[in-house]
Task: structure prediction
Amino acid sequence: MATIDDVAKLAGVSKGTVSNVFSKKRPIGPEATKRVFEAARQLGYYPNHIARSLAIRKTMIAGLRMPIPKDGMMSQFEIQMINGVLNECAKHGFRVLLDTLPEHDDPNQFTVDPVDGVIMLNPRREDLRIEMYRQIGMPLVLVGRPDPMDPGVSYVDNDNAELACEVGRYLLSFGHESILFLNASSDMTVAFDRERGLAAALAEQGMPLPPEQVMNYSRELHRSPTEYGYRAVLETMKSRSYTAVVADTDRVALGVLRAARELGLNVPDDLSVIALSNDARLAQEMTPPLTCVELSAEMLGAQAAQILMEKMENANVVRQHTVRAKLVFRESCKKRPR
Amino acid sequence: MATIDDVAKLAGVSKGTVSNVFSKKRPIGPEATKRVFEAARQLGYYPNHIARSLAIRKTMIAGLRMPIPKDGMMSQFEIQMINGVLNECAKHGFRVLLDTLPEHDDPNQFTVDPVDGVIMLNPRREDLRIEMYRQIGMPLVLVGRPDPMDPGVSYVDNDNAELACEVGRYLLSFGHESILFLNASSDMTVAFDRERGLAAALAEQGMPLPPEQVMNYSRELHRSPTEYGYRAVLETMKSRSYTAVVADTDRVALGVLRAARELGLNVPDDLSVIALSNDARLAQEMTPPLTCVELSAEMLGAQAAQILMEKMENANVVRQHTVRAKLVFRESCKKRPR
DNA sequence: CTGAAAGCGCTTACAG
DNA sequence: CTGAAAGCGCTTACAG
Result:
C-alpha cells in the first residue's frame, strides 16, 4: 500500500507538501499540486484515516454501544434508535461505529475507541464504564437514565409511567371503567413503570387496578405479540366484558382487533383499543387506524446524537432530556357505549 | 489523557513492558504486572485503539457502506441487512463502522478507513470505488452484483426475476389466469426484474402479461404501501375480476386484504394473495397468514459478512453467491374457484 | 523476563 | 509557497 512517503518521493516534494495537497490546510503551488496528484494516481495512494486520526486526534466517528439480544433480533425500538442516531450523525458528517459486542466492564479490557464520542444504550446500575469515559475525557451520552442519578452525565430517556398515566386519563375521560391491560413481559422495567402509571390514573378517580385486569406477555406462552393480543381478548372476554383494551404495542393491538372481529365487536363502537408503543409502524394502516403512543425511539436516538455533537464542541455541557412520547389520536377509541 | 509513557514512568518499567502487560503477547513477571496495573488504575490509563491499529495494522472493525435515503427512513430490507451483518460480525469479534454518508467517488476524497474490510451496498454502474479498494488491498464484498460483471469481485445478491417467475408458476399451477400484479415503484430495477420474471412464467403457458394487469407503486399517488394495495384492488376490481393478486410487499398485501374484506371477497376462497417480499415481518400475523417470499435480507447481510471474514483470512478467495429467496407457503393462496 | 529504539503513516509548528 | 523534524500512542524485532 502506497504511503505519503512514496508519493512525496515520486513527486519530488516533502511529505508535508503531499499532506497539505490532500488536506488543503495550507495552500500549495499549482505545479507541486499537479505533480502530487499525478504521483498519487500512479501509485494508487489514498490517505490513511488511522494515521491521520492519531496525528490530529479526531476521527469524525461516533460510537454507539448497544448489545444485541442473543437471538440476534433487534426490536423495532432499537432499530429506530439506530436510525435516529445515524441520521443525526450524518447531518454533521459523522459516521457511526456500532459496537454490539457483549459488554466488558473489566477496566483492563477497556480501550479508547477510534471515536470522538459515544452514545451508550441502557446503562447498567453502577455502570463502571461511565466513570472510565469520564477519565479519558470522552464525550458520553446515555440513552436511558444513569442509576444512580448523576448530575454530571448527559442522557435522554422517556417517561413510561407518565405516559401510561396519560393514556389512562384519556380512557377515563371517555367513561371507560373496565379496562383490560395487556402489558409487556413482567421482567421488563418498562412493564412495571407502565402498570404504575395506569394505576395512578385510575387512583385519581378513586379506582383500583385489580390484578385480573392486567396480563403480561410471555415468550413461552405466546407465539407472537399478535397472538398474545388475540388470545388474551378471546379468553378474558368470556368471563368479563371490558369496554377498553390498553395494548402493550401495535402488534398486540393487531391481535386484539382480530379477536374483536371474531367476537362481532366493533372497534371503536363496542370496544376502544389503544397501544402504548409502536413496534412496527403499522398503527395508521390498521382497520381502524390505531390510537397509540409514539415512543419516538428515533427521536431519542437523534437527540442523543445531537447532544453528543454539542458535547464534542464543549466538554462542559450536560443535558438531561426526558423525551415526552406523544399520544397520537386516531380512530380506535370512542366514548363508552351505554 | 494518560498514555503508555506515563504508565511506564510511574510503574518504573519500559513502555514495551506496559504494552505487553495489556496485550499479553509475551509474559511479564508478576511484580512488574502488578505495578503496571496499579499505575494504570491511578492514572486512569486505557490503551488507545487508534495507536494500536496503526502499529499492528488491524482494527477488528468491518466497514458497511450504505447510503441512507434522504428522508432518513431505512427500509426493512436495509434494516435486516444491517442486522445480518452485525450478528455475523459480532460472532467473529468484529464491530461495524456504518458509513451512511453520501458517496464520493472522487478519488481525491477517498480515504483508507479504520477497517479491516468493507461491505458495500448497491454498487453503482462502473463503480470506481471497487477499483480503489482493490488498489489498497482492502477486502471487499458487495451486496448486489457489480456492473459490469467482474470475476474478481465477491458479492451476494438475490435473483428477483427467478423469484417472481416461481411465484407466477405457483399461481398458474392453481389455475389462476387473471392475475393482478401490484409491482414496486417503476424506477426500481427490482420492479423491472420482477415484472420480467412474472411475464416469463406466464409465457411458459403461452400467456401474455398485459400492461393493464400491472400497476406500480408511486410515492406521489399513494400515502403508504398499504393504501396502495387497498386502492388498487378496490379500483381495478370494478372493471375486471381477478382471482389472484401478486403484491410487492406484505404491507401492500395488508391493504389488499382489507379491500377484499370490504368487497365481501374471502381470501383465499375467492381471491388468492401472495407477496414478493416482506417489509414488516407481519406476514404470519395477518388474517389469513400470508403466503410470501422471504427475501432474507438478513441472510444476505450475514453471508456478505461471512465472505468478508474469509477474505480477510485469505485475500485470494472470491465468492459470488446468489442467495435464493424462498417462498413460504401459508394460507392466502388456494386453487382457483370455478 | 525486560529495555532501547525503530517503525506504523500522518500532521504541524518552526524556519526559510 | 516549501522542507526538515518532532510528535501522535502504540508494537515488536533485537539484544541482553
Summary: Residues 85 and 305 of chain A are 5 Å apart (CA to CA). Residues 297-313 of chain A form the longest helix (17 residues).
